[in-house]
Amino acid sequence: MLQADTERYFSERSGIAALWAGLLAGPVAWALHLQTSYSITPFFHGTGSTLALYLVTLAALVIAAAGGLISWRNWQRAGAAWPSGEGGVIARSRFMAVSGMIVSAYFFVTILAQAVPIMMLRS
Predict the structure, then answer these.
(1) How is the chain classified by DSSP, letter by letter?
(2) Which residues does 7 contact at the CB level (< 8 Å), separation at least 6?
(3) Residues 78, 97 contacting (CB under 8 angstroms)
(4) Maximum distance among all alpha carbons in the chain?
(5) Rounded-to-integer distance, Cα 55 and Cα 32, Å
(6) Which residue, of 7, 25, 30, 108, has the fewest CB within 10 Å?
(7) Contact 107, 29 (CB under 8 A)
């Protein structure tokens, strides 16, 4: 009965959206961080204030971490097992959840690496 509920959840629109949200939150956060940082740097570079850049970085890190949390919760709901070679809704959900955790962690570290120049940026 529990597996049937899990399959039903990950077959519905909300379950599929949760899987995609966990998988794409990290890359979207990185892209937004990169574009926003480049866009606002000319406005704040002359003043010497980097607070806006720190806030953008913090927001991007929160979004990437949220993607990892969503993926972890999806993985827990799908049975907290490594994806197997079998097909089906549960196997797909486990694969997407594990992939989302890995991708979110990668982009979290990437955003941190991009923040290093911001921290050293002083006029």
Answers:
(1) -HHHHHHHHHHSHHHHHHHHHHHHHHHHHHHHHHHHHHHHHHHHHTTT--HHHHHHHHHHHHHHHHHHHHHHHHHHHTTS----S--SHHHHHHHHHHHHHHHHHHHHHHHHHHHHHHHH---
(2) 88, 89, 90
(3) yes
(4) 63
(5) 13
(6) 7
(7) yes
**CA angle, residues 62, 63, 67, in degrees to nearest 5:** 115
Predicted TM-score (pTM) of the model is 0.87
How far is the C-alpha of 123 from the C-alpha of 85, rounded, in Å? 55
Residue 49 identity? S
CA distance 63 to 29: 6
Q: How far apart are CA 98 and CA 7, in angstroms?
A: 17
pLDDT tens column, 61-111: 999 999 999 999 999 998 887 767 777 888 899 999 999 999 999 999 999
Count of positions (residues) in the chain: 123
Reference 44, options 60, 55, 28; nearest CA is: 55
